[in-house]
Here is the input.
Amino acid sequence: MGAEVGAEVLTPAFFGAWIEEAARSVRAERDELTRLDAAIGDADHGTNLDRGFTEAVRALGERCPATPGAVLVLVGSTLIRKVGGASGPLYGTAFREAGKALGDAPAVSAADLAAALTAGVAGVRRLGSAAEGDKTMVDALAPAAGALAEAVREGRGLDDALGAASAAAAAGAAATIPMPARKGRASYLGPRSVGHQDPGATSAALILRALHTVAARW
Amino acid sequence: MKKLINGADAVVTDALRGLAAAHPGLRVDAGNRIVVRAGGPRPGKVGLVSGGGSGHEPLHAGFVGYGMLDAACPGEIFTSPVPDQVVEASTAVHGGAGVLHVVKNYTGDVLNFRMAAELCAEEGVEVASVLVDDDVAVRDSLYTAGRRGTGATVFVEKIAGALAEAGAPLAEVARVAREVNDRSRSFGVALSACTTPAAGKPTFELSEAEVELGIGIHGEPGRTRDTMRDARELTGVAIDAIHEDMPLSGDVLVMVNGMGGTPLIELYVAYAEVAGHLADRGARAARSLVGNYVTSLDMQGFSVTVCRLTDELTRLWDAPVETPALRWGR
Here is the structure.
């Protein structure tokens, strides 16, 4: 808590703890994610993500890489290999691109993390051809990346900055409720997708909340 | 909701074990979830690989065999397979003439098959892909993920499979596969929702007086909810939607497909009406298929798929096929 944004205090163990916390959150919210997906999709988002994060935690347990970048790349590859559906490649790409942006440093700063999150979101946008307002995970991820970058520019501490990112993601997920979906399976419903919170944006907010939870005790 | 299963997590693996036990002509890897024709890759023959979420049986694994698919990659229920499965299946059936991926147009399927195709290229396997998007209930626009791939998948796999069996090169097999998709349209109607084993309850609720029009195959609701009507009117809605998008005339191949929970006798009731509706519009049902081919677990309902035939497509449709779910002429 209170670490300088430029201080390189975020180690592979921090990122491992994040993924464990994310796996716990996804497990706890699994049925709620599936319920949201049943309304406008195909009722499997919770079970798929639960399977993927469980496998990611297992992969890190078998061989935790030596750099934060390699941790995120391994998490991303595992999600691509184990989740399936659209969320596997999309989350997998987000983590892989974020990991690649962190390079080979043995520990990274909040500023580095902000740049990595921005790179991850760019990867998702590219692969899914989704923009903000399409009612997808981008609606939670993009504001979170923006909020984290701004907090870093303002020189706020790690806990504070990731708190802002988590809050922006939650607000972004809630903002998907009145949107008609333009991407993914929910788009088949057209106007009938209005009034439901997007499950992908919801899980993205959960994963970023887990990042803040871990940062708050780091 | 009662289900004839051992456990929700084991459904896909257990069903693949059953498929293996029932069909010795298939090589089933239940662990890695790949179903391949026995006998290994055929030198000089284009390999046909498809895959998608489970819950649509017999699609796709039931169409692996002579004259149709060389391999299928079943994902979790309603979830696309992962790239590793598709790469393994593609390399297993690669006989030196390349591999055609038949991909239904869903975001997940498209992304996972695209990643798999890139990995296949790195391993020296030439891959062409055909996207099936025949469902007229979805408007293809900037505001949707594009039309869904549904019933036409069976036509694409059968007809392209026949051409591949005859020794045609990859570009030709891909061309005919795209032609079948371009000439095919589908529309589906649900009388009840389906229940996934993991969720244990229906994905949406329909009263006795309601139907969902324009449904997909994943238990997602359709475009509109409407009042329940008789088979003549419901099939008329489907044929009208298809005819509006692709004017029907001449000889057509038509499938009346059950969604999994509708008895065959009702599908024949529907087929009688469909044949009549087609005749009223100046088209002739020259070839037909009635049964459960692209299902949505236990959903009650049906879909109609129509393909405007050419002499070449008719000949390839009639060619021998021997798979668990389709077999004739051999």
Observations:
- Chain A has one domain: 12-216.
